[in-house]
Design brief:
The complex is a heterodimer of chains A (509) and B (276). Chain A has 509 residues and is of the alpha+beta class. Chain A is built from 15 helices and 20 strands. In chain A, the strands form seven sheets. Chain A has a five-stranded mixed β-sheet with strand order 2-1-3-4-7, with no helix packed on it. In chain B, 76% of the residues lie in helices and 0% in strands. Classes of the chains: A alpha+beta (509), B mainly alpha (276).
């Protein structure tokens, strides 16, 4: 709809205000928006007052109204039309940006939430699916299946399959553990012993007798190649120990030992407290054989070391060699010297231990013409006697045989034709009574020696002062801890890979 | 209080089930500890894992079933079981982990489960709280109804503002034309828009009416009350959108991450038996 008006004025004000010549009732128009007036240059201009003017999209404060000129006054388009002859200027005003419908406009500016949600959800789901399948399945699998990729990945600190690792690797294996193929040689195959043996070639078997070892373990695992390393050594469980510390695996065989080896003389055992058999002590017999005797057979527990030594006379306050005033307080460590981290004891020696109280040489003959028998071999003693006192040598040697040397040593008779009149029995000092177990003195150092070794009343060196199971059970219990008693499993005292405790090994010591 | 909702369905039947499942799992966990500590590969671990995996599939089946509109049991019952047994499942899986976590597919799958469960809890909460609040907020109105009423106030406000000074007119005009409702997801979820022109206009108008003529002043007061009404209406619409978005947003996590969980869980199972 167009309407025409002819106005007569010096200047034409345009605005929302009722007093304006051109009254535009639109909220986007200012009260006094602009004015059309003649400026000093003689031309008619459109000048902004409180509103905005735009020419070709640019904001301007004024514009000369020449023929054909267009300008936007708010939403209105002003156009300079060709003026009829009796008029100074002719303009047309057209509402080019209509005020939109309020409701529709508002609706367009109102965004409902979660539009197209199912497609978004589908995209997220697909993305996650693709990500998981690629990172956690496709790449690790590809590394296993493509040898080229495998070779490339070998050089890197870790492979794609690292994401399959179920837990921390133990410290000892950490340096190669981030490359799974070092142990997991084939997909779907459990880790084989061959992988372990790459490094651990020298691990001792459980049983020294190779045939028995094979027979026993195949008996237990009829369908496999015997027991696997990984059954007891569980990796990916750090910081928990790599080696199983519980009894379950041991008891699988030792709970019913006859089932795996009918000929064995071992007893069944499930728990140290409940059914561990009495300890057996390892003896080395005179003919250099290893014999294990149960501590219940007390009458057979006789050590034949070749020494005559009453412990009872060497404990506590004893008379020293230098007269009445020389009283010495002897303890175990005066003669038994601990060595090493585990505080094992080296055997006492004459030079180091006996000599501190006892004379180095044996005095023979009268006070004026005394001669001395050195502490040495029988040959040395015989030579000394024959040199020092050729006439009385036989007498003196007889004295030594019955009183001197025989004071501490067992003396053996010799045949008539032998060069020596008698012999000293070679010493066989036992180093390892519990050869099938390990005992750490250092861990028990808070205890008094006598708490376990009852030597104060021992009159003879035949006595074996090794503690029995009952002594251990004072402080130790079985699989479960008990009141004031420490839980002790098989592994507390025994080694699985313990084939070193063979006869030969024991005799070598 | 409502009767028979998904929580007290059949006198808390599934709640009781869930409690039993959790107690049994805990008892087993405490009684059977492997020598190397708890882990997913022990017999107990395999047991818990297998049960959990089956439960995950069963949970997911709820989502499939729901979309099928074919009846096999009461939907409310299914939802009740979904919620309670889903919670029990989380406990089972946590025990299955043996509390051993690392940067691997196994812990990743567990993380997926947690996202699904936590989003499910939020959904639960949303459906407990928001429908009532929505009714309180909207009353008899619909969203379009509110928008129409805002449009009406716009018309009225503009008309009065035409005779007001420019600053008032423009403030009102801007408020009418530049107020957006729920522009982005974040604003929708918060139910609040920073620098809302309507809010600003109401604030500004309190100080603008000082230099008005007495006739204008009367109109001005009317204009002010119209703008306050507009503000209230806008707030209500925003609130409505907030509730709607919160009622919907958790499904953005619950559903896609459930897919991710199933994928990760399957990969986790495959990986365990590829290298074992």
């Amino acid at each position: 709809m167009r309407s025409y008006r002819t106005l007569n004025a010096e200047e034409l004000t345009i605005g929302r205000g009722a007093e304006c010549n051109i009254h535009l009732l639109d909220p986007r128009i200012a009260m006094h928006h602009a004015v059309i007036k003649r400026l000093d240059d003689g031309q008619t201009h459109l000048v902004a007052i409180n509103g905005e003017l735009q020419v070709d999209g640019l904001m301007v404060s004024e514009v000369a109204l020449t023929d054909g000129q267009q300008a936007m006054i708010g939403p209105y388009l002003l156009k300079v039309e060709p003026a009829p002859p009796d008029v100074n200027i002719s303009v047309s005003l057209e509402l080019s940006h209509r005020l939109p419908d309020d409701f529709q406009d508002l609706k367009a500016r109102t965004h409902e939430p979660l539009q197209g949600s199912s497609s978004v959800k589908r995209k997220i789901a697909l993305g996650l699916f693709a990500f998981i399948t690629l990172i956690f399945l496709a790449l690790p699998l590809a590394q296993n299946l493509s040898s080229r990729l495998h070779t490339t990945m070998e050089e890197l600190p870790m492979g794609f399959d690292r994401v399959w690792s179920p837990g921390h690797i133990s410290n000892a294996h950490l340096h190669f553990g981030s490359q799974c193929f070092n142990c997991h040689e084939k997909l779907t195959q459990q880790v084989t012993d061959a992988a372990c043996l790459t490094c651990h070639q020298d691990t001792a078997p459980h049983i020294a007798n190779a045939a028995l070892q094979k027979q026993v373990f195949n008996q237990k695992h009829r369908f496999s190649e015997g027991i696997r390393c990984a059954e007891c050594h569980r990796e990916h469980k750090a910081p928990v120990s790599l080696t199983r510390q519980d009894n379950a695996k041991c008891v699988e065989c030792h709970g019913n030992i006859k089932a795996v080896n009918a000929k064995t003389d071992l007893s069944n055992v499930h728990d140290f407290d409940k059914d561990h058999p009495p300890f057996k002590l390892t003896f080395i017999t005179e003919n250099q054989q290893v014999e294990r005797i149960s501590q219940t057979e007390k009458e057979r527990l006789i050590e034949q070391s070749g020494l005559i030594f009453p412990h009872s006379q060497h404990v506590g306050k004893v008379q020293g060699p230098n007269g009445m005033a020389d009283v010495r307080d002897l303890t175990c460590t005066n003669c038994h010297h601990p060595k090493g981290k585990e505080m094992r004891f080296s055997p006492p020696t004459f030079e180091r231990d006996c000599k501190t109280c006892h004379r180095k040489e044996l005095k023979l003959g009268s006070a004026e013409k005394a001669i001395y028998a050195p502490h040495g071999s029988v040959q040395q003693v015989v030579s000394a006697m024959q040199t020092e006192a050729p006439k009385q040598a036989a007498t003196y040697l007889e004295t030594l045989k019955t009183e001197g040397c025989a004071y501490c040593h067992e003396v053996l008779e010799t045949q008539k034709e032998d060069a020596l009149p008698w012999q000293i029995k070679p010493l066989t000092i036992n180093h390892d009574w519990f050869s099938k177990a390990h005992f750490n003195h250092a861990k028990h150092r808070t205890q008094q020696c006598q708490a376990c070794h009852d030597v104060e009343t021992s009159e003879t060196s035949e006595d074996v002062a090794m503690p029995d199971k009952a002594v251990c059970l004072k402080c130790h219990s079985g699989n479960k801890p008990k009141y004031k008693r420490i839980a002790s499993t098989c592994m507390s005292c025994h080694e699985f890979h313990d084939a070193h405790a063979t006869q030969e090994a024991l005799l070598k010591k | 209080m409502q009767h028979n909702n998904m929580f007290n369905y059949k006198n808390y039947r599934y709640f009781k089930w869930a409690v039993v499942v959790i107690l049994v799992a805990f008892a087993a966990y405490l009684l059977f500890e492997p020598a190397v500590g708890h882990y997913g590969g022990s017999w107990l671990g395999y047991g818990l894992g297998t049960i959990s995996a089956l439960m995950v599939f069963w949970m997911a089946w709820y989502g499939v079933r729901k979309r099928r509109y074919r009846s096999s049991g009461n939907t409310q019952g299914w939802l009740s079981a979904h919620i309670y047994l889903g919670t029990a499942l989380t406990v089972l899986v946590t025990l299955h982990t043996g509390f051993r976590f690392g940067l691997n597919i196994h812990t990743f799958a567990y993380g997926m489960l947690l996202i699904v469960v936590v989003s499910g809890f939020f959904g639960n909460y949303a459906y407990m709280i928001y429908p009532r609040l929505m009714t309180e907020n909207m009353g008899e109105d619909s969203l379009d109804g509110l928008l129409l009423r805002i449009a009406e106030t716009d018309k009225l406000a503009r008309q009065i503002a035409l005779v007001m000074p420019d600053d008032i007119n423009f403030t009102v005009d801007r408020a009418c034309r530049e107020t957006y409702i729920g522009t982005r997801l974040l604003e929708q979820l918060r139910g609040y828009q920073e620098d809302c022109p309507t809010e600003k206009a109401v604030k500004k108008l309190t100080v603008m009416g000082n230099d008005l003529s007495p006739e204008q002043r009367k109109l001005y007061r009317e204009l002010y009350s119209i703008m306050v009404r507009r503000q209230t209406l806008v707030k209500r619409v925003r609130q409505e959108l907030m509730y709607r978005s919160r009622l919907g947003i958790w499904l953005y996590f619950h559903v896609p991450f459930a897919i991710a969980l199933i994928t990760a869980m399957l990969v986790h199972i495959i990986a365990v038996f590829l290298y074992w």
